[in-house]
Amino acid sequence: MPDHTRPAVAEISGTAAGDTPLLSVVVPVRNEAPNIAPLVAEIGAALAAIPHEIVYVDDGSTDATAATLDELARSTPALRVLGHVASCGQSAAIVTGVRAARGDWIATLDGDGQNDPADIPALWDFALAESAAGGPPLMVAGWRVNRRDTQVKRLSSRLANRIRARLLGDATPDTGCGLKLFPRALFLSLPAFDHMHRFLPALVLRQGGRVVSRPVNHRPRMRGQSNYGTLDRLAVGIVDLFGVIWLQRRWKRPRLRP
Question: What residue stretches are annotated with the Glycosyltransferase 2-like domain (predicted)?
Answer without folding.
Answer: 24-187
